[in-house]
Amino acid sequence: MNIINSLRTWWGGVSAFFESIGPQNGAPANALVPGTARTSVDAAMQISTVWACIDRRASLVASLPFFAYVKKNGKKTIDENARLYTLLHESPNARMTPFEFWRAIVMNHDLRGAGYARIDRDYQGEAISMWPMPTAQVEPRVLPDGSMVYIYRFSNDVAVLAEENVYVLKNLGNGTTGMDKLQFMQAGLDEAAKAQADASKLFGAAGKPAGVLMIDKLLKEDQRAAVKRNFADMGEGSTTRLHLLEADMKYQQLTMTPEQQQLLETRKYGVEELCRWYDCPPVLVHHSNVTAWGSGIDSLIDGFYKLAIRPLLVNIEQGVRKRVMTPRQRVTGSAEFEMAALLRGSLKDRMEIYSKATQNGLKTRNECRALENDPPLDGGDEITAQSNLVPVRLLGTPGMVTAGGSSSPTAQ
Q: Phi then psi for 317, rounded to 5 degrees?
């Protein structure tokens, strides 16, 4: 216990790195930058980069088909008759589409460190519906025996849910609780919010920096008031008036210009900084630090799919398998996203893949046609391959078709 207390003291208090009996904490114990203003979820989502990153990630994941499969005789096929298939691919609950459901789960995951859903089950224990629970309304709690419950506060009601009745999509954390990303990125959010506020004030004043009027003589009170009225627009207001300085008056600028503040550069850097938190390439949120769309952008998007989206999909799939499926369902089936759906936007890429799959005996022509919603063809269920793709040991044997299309006499 002394070691644990020493570690907590070194880290600055109880944080998301520690697990203890009772409520779990996903926030940092202290702030990186003292005095940083706390940015709420509502405020953070008003920063365009945060909204764009959240929407890009959540919408992409939600757009992928989520299938339930059945395994039989070593073959895995989509099980459209399974209740799990309906739950994941058709209707998670009476109110939402699968797209709406998974977008809400991933949004809470990316903002608050975990996405929660209440699971309703039938008398056999199979999940029949899933309802998202806003993370701010859920309190994960570890009981003295090591089990967990989730306390869900809805209006004036409080529900205590057993671990087996809650689906949890956890962010980076200690395995029990995901870290509250919004709390960990407060310094970056505060910087971006202040830059946005400064830009709003500056443009609201027609881009005019503040300054003072200087004169080499004393003014009476009524003269001072008249000067203030006459030159009020120099600091703010209309840009169309022509101002004259009389009697050796001089204007001295006090605040820096946008160029001197490097305001635009700061805001551009803020976009890149927030994108780093969400592992989202700036080009995907329409940042202007890149050239036109091309092969370089394609490589960035491909890396985004592999390094950011694919791990998130694995996290979701494993969570469904562990927390939603029953032990019997885990033995006879599985649940997986269809990553090939990412190719739906590129006809050229799909045709090239189909061509290679059919030529190398990986898929039948009817299987490829089904992916394009085309009707099957007679004879299209037969596996085919190029004639020159044969084992080396069979080269030159009678009956083998050569690469040129001619065949040797069939062996008797």
A: -60, -45
User: How far is the C-alpha of 405 from the C-alpha of 384, rounded, in Å?
Assistant: 15
Supply φ then ψ for residue 249, to 5 degrees. Answer: -70, 145
Q: What is the pLDDT of residue 313?
A: 95
> What pLDDT score was predicted for residue 404?
46
Provide the whole-model pTM.
Answer: 0.73
Q: Which amino acid is at 371?
A: L
- Cα 37 from Cα 30, distance rounded (Å): 13
How far apart are the C-alpha atoms of 281 and 264, rounded to whole Å? 20
φ/ψ region of 175 (left if φ > 0, alpha if ψ in -120 to 50, else beta) reads left
Work out the pLDDT band at 7, boundaries 50, 70, 90: very low
Q: Are 203 and 196 in contact (CB under 8 A)?
A: no
Average pLDDT of the chain, as a whole number: 79
AA letter at 141: R
CA distances from residue 277 to 197, 282, 283, 375 in whole angstroms, order as listed = 21, 11, 15, 45
Helix and strand counts by DSSP (H, E) for the chain:
15, 12
Q: What are residue 129's DSSP bridge partners?
A: 120
The DSSP code for 401 is: B
Q: Per the structure block, which two tokens stand in for 196? A: 């946005």
Instruction: Look at residues 179, 252, 181 and name the one whose alpha carbon lies nearest to residue 18.
Output: 179
Q: Which of 321, 21, 325 is nearest to 149 (CA)?
A: 21
Query: What residues have CB less than 8 Å from 303, skipping those under 6 apart?
Result: 281
